[in-house]
Write a sequence for this structure.
């Protein structure tokens, strides 16, 4: 059985985290197709949470013919949480090994959307809704961040 989006290609943008992964799915010309998040249970082990994330990624890959993934570059804040975040990045790199993988620094994302690398999450979200995707709804900041990450890709590649 062929996947639903086999003939069309899609671009996934990820705001990666062990607690809640934000995902924005775009077509290749920058239309926002779907926004969702994967919230994990903090009472579960890291392995269980990684499996939940990985299983959902596999489901999405089956549903959408993924050509490119766009990810916010990880940054070091606290040693343990940084190590766990890199596990999520490794899982993502592995599951999307055959896709083009593009990384952007957080300041690059903020600057692409708002014009300044020092904008806060609410300002980024406000501009996304006002100037790019007024009909979008976000359940959390992870989802709006994922859209910002994807939008940065389309701005950078001069598609939008």
């Amino acid at each position: 059985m062929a996947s639903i989006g086999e003939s069309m290609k899609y671009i996934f943008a990820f705001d990666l985290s062990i607690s809640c992964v934000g995902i924005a799915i775009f077509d290749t010309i920058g239309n926002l197709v779907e926004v969702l998040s994967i919230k994990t249970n903090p009472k579960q082990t890291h392995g269980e949470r990684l499996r939940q994330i990985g299983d959902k990624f596999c489901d999405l890959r089956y549903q959408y013919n993924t050509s490119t993934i766009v990810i916010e570059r990880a940054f070091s804040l606290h040693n343990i949480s940084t190590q766990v975040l890199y596990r999520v990045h490794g899982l993502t790199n592995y599951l999307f090994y055959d896709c083009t993988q593009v990384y952007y620094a957080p300041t690059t994302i903020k600057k692409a959307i708002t014009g300044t690398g020092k904008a806060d999450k609410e300002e980024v979200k406000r501009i996304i809704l006002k100037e790019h995707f007024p009909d979008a709804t976000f359940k959390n900041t992870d989802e709006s961040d994922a859209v910002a990450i994807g939008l940065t890709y389309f701005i950078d590649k001069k598609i939008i």
About this structure: Residues 46-63 form the longest helix (18 residues). The radius of gyration is 15 Å. The chain is about 45% helix and 25% strand. Residues 1-5 have pLDDT under 50 and may be disordered.
